[in-house]
């Protein structure tokens, strides 16, 4: 099949995640073309990359590059308007990573009603506030990149918790909980916050007014073992996850990807989550991590994984086992079956 994928967001390509931090949604888009090409398909990718290039047997083109006159399958990423990117398509699919309700907006609904695409969802939670109304929909198996599937966990001393959440997605809440209820019971532990925005603020860069109070709180929390780190490309981020005892994931109601939570699970780092968005779908509760029903439970479970090496080791091993087959090749094979 000739398969065309199109994204209209930020500049990146199939090599970007290896050399610089990249959002989970962008990494997912960058990972699928090569996996489809390995199945023998002819794959073209259009996005805001700087120039055309051949990556993992898929041809990447700039967004304004020459489009194919026809394609067997057009996969539009996130934006329903992209369903019209190629005029003649044997089949169209919309790969949606946001809350389901966004597809109920009039402009989005009009595109869906006109083209009747296959909906590729990333979480069951997306279906809670969206009615397919006759459209075919499938839950694309979630996958992680190879860096997170290789290597062995090697938690460091002193015990380390890691957080990768967006600063606006519960970090303020987590800092309060860390200072008041977690660190006092694990006094040698550290909290490593991986955030480009907060790292820039710590280095003296101008910060958005809405985030200045949080940046100040983070700086003050240094006395409680809190430090800020710049996110890195996949290889170094995988190492950071393997060195942590626990991934603390506050979550957000609109987070349907929870991409970094998948990566930490694959790397063998157990998690404590709040059951928001799709977070509960990324762990096996009580096996590879814990879903905490309230603040006290979250703190208690974080302390357990920071201080009980036996529990932490067992959960980490279970997480790695659960995710070891969740590759993009597997996801591509599932998608191929739906498209035939």
What features would you describe in this structure?
- The protein is of the alpha/beta class and 340 residues long.
- It folds into 2 domains: 2-143 and 327-339, 3-Layer(aba) Sandwich (Rossmann fold); 150-323, Glycogen Phosphorylase B (Rossmann fold, 3-Layer(aba) Sandwich).
- Helix content is 34%, strand content 19%.
- The protein is built from 11 helices and 14 strands.
- The protein has helices at 16-19, 24-38, 106-115, 171-182, 196-202, 212-220, 234-242, 259-266, 295-307, 309-323, 328-339; strands spanning 2-6, 42-47, 53-55, 58-62, 70-77, 88-96, 118-121, 137-139, 160-163, 190-194, 226-229, 246-249, 271-273, 289-291.
- The strands form 2 sheets. Strands 3-4-2-1-5-6-7-8 form an 8-stranded mixed sheet, with helices on one face.
- It is elongated.
- 47% of the residues are buried.
List the helices and strands and how they pair.
Layout: E1 2-6, H1 16-19, H2 24-38, E2 42-47, E3 53-55, E4 58-62, E5 70-77, E6 88-96, H3 106-115, E7 118-121, E8 137-139, E9 160-163, H4 171-182, E10 190-194, H5 196-202, H6 212-220, E11 226-229, H7 234-242, E12 246-249, H8 259-266, E13 271-273, E14 289-291, H9 295-307, H10 309-323, H11 328-339
Parallel strand pairs: 1-2, 1-5, 2-4, 5-6, 6-7, 7-8, 9-10, 9-12, 10-11, 12-13, 13-14
Antiparallel strand pairs: 3-4
Organism: Paramagnetospirillum caucaseum
Pfam families: Glyco_trans_1_4
Protein name: Glycosyltransferase
């Amino acid at each position: 099949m000739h398969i065309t994928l199109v994204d209209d967001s930020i500049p990146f390509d199939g090599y970007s995640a290896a050399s610089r931090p990249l959002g989970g949604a962008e990494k997912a888009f960058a990972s699928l073309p090569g996996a489809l090409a390995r199945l023998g398909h002819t794959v073209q990718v259009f996005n805001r990359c700087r120039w055309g290039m051949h990556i993992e047997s898929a041809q990447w083109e700039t967004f304004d590059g020459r489009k194919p006159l026809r394609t067997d399958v057009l996969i539009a990423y996130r934006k329903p308007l992209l369903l019209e990117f190629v005029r003649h398509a044997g089949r169209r699919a919309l790969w949606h990573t946001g809350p389901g309700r966004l597809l109920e907006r009039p402009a989005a609904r009009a595109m869906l009603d006109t083209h009747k695409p296959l909906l590729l969802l990333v979480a069951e939670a997306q279906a809670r506030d969206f009615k397919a109304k006759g459209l075919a929909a499938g839950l694309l198996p979630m996958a992680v990149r190879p860096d997170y599937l290789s290597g062995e966990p090697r938690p460091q001393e002193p015990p380390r918790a890691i957080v990768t959440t967006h600063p606006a997605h519960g970090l303020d809440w987590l800092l309060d909980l860390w200072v008041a209820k977690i660190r006092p019971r694990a006094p040698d532990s550290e909290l490593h916050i991986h955030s480009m925005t907060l790292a820039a603020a710590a280095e003296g860069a101008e910060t958005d007014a809405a985030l200045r109070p949080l940046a100040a709180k983070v700086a003050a929390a240094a006395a409680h073992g809190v430090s800020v780190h710049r996110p890195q490309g996949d290889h170094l981020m995988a190492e950071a996850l393997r060195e942590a005892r626990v991934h603390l994931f506050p979550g957000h109601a609109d987070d349907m990807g929870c991409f970094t939570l998948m990566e930490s699970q694959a790397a063998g780092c157990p998690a404590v989550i709040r059951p928001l968005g799709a977070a509960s779908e990324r762990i096996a509760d009580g096996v590879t991590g814990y879903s905490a029903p309230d603040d006290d439970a979250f703190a208690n479970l974080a302390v357990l994984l920071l201080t009980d090496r036996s529990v932490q080791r067992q959960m980490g091993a279970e997480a790695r086992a659960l995710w070891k087959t969740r590759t993009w090749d597997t996801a591509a094979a599932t998608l191929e079956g739906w498209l035939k």
